[in-house]
Design goal:
Number of domains: 1
Radius of gyration: 18 Å
Strand content: under 5%
Helix content: 55-70%
Largest sheet: 2 strands, antiparallel
Number of strands: 2
Number of helices: 6
Distance between the termini: 20 Å
Oligomer: single chain
Structural class: mainly alpha
Shape: globular
């Protein structure tokens, strides 16, 4: 968790991510799944943004892999069709609709919790050189949680615009949005606890 990613690790993450994004893109285009084609575009833009930030902040290998796995979970959520007999929410039988705990916890909730937990870790590492110098770990972590949940709210805006632009989506309504935000927060708080009890990342403030 503490060491910046090596160039070889970066290349592996980029290759792995590019491979599944390309495969998912082909599948979505063939099936005319315009909702997830839009999300592929969002993932690509996010990836380029992360690459730019990484060149300045020097994320750890763990962060890069966790971000890539989040993207993979998102792609699989729209790719995989589950058996109709499996518990699922609504009419859609994609993995995103699968109830992991019937009526309480969906695969969608898992992706939100995991993803914005990772975002909290990312935001924390970005904020540390700005906030610290005085070892204000509580302030750093609180700001990271708030920043990650701001990104979560922005994600809900993207889903909202997807509903407006694309005739048929699997986004869900107001209740779905509320639960998405709840699980974003849960994931962020879990990440905050891990950061608090884990060893802080050593950052060379003179590096940049």
């Amino acid at each position: 968790m503490s060491n910046p990613a090596s160039k070889s690790s970066e290349r592996f993450v980029i290759a792995f991510t590019s491979l599944y994004v390309l495969a998912a893109s082909v599948f979505y285009v063939q099936n005319r799944n315009w909702e997830f084609i839009l999300y592929v575009f969002v993932v690509i833009v996010a990836g380029l943004l992360i690459k730019n930030i990484h060149s300045k902040v020097h994320f750890s290998t763990g962060i890069l892999w966790c971000l890539s796995i989040w993207g993979l979970m998102h792609m699989l959520g729209g790719l995989i069709q589950i058996p109709i007999s499996w518990p699922h929410n609504g009419d859609s039988t994609v993995l995103y609709s699968l109830w992991l705990i019937p009526d309480y916890f969906k695969y969608d909730h898992l992706v939100h919790g995991y993803g914005f937990g990772v975002c909290t870790w990312v935001c924390w590492q970005v904020l540390r050189p700005i906030v610290t110098g005085t070892h204000e770990y509580v302030s750093e972590i609180v700001l990271a949680v708030l920043a990650a949940n701001g990104l979560g709210a922005f994600n809900e805006l993207i889903e909202f615009f997807a509903v407006l632009i694309i005739p048929s989506t699997n986004v869900g309504g107001y209740i779905n949005t509320g639960w998405d935000l709840v699980f974003n927060l849960i994931g962020s708080l879990i990440a905050a606890c891990i950061i608090w009890f884990g060893k802080p990342i050593d950052i060379d403030l003179q590096k940049n």
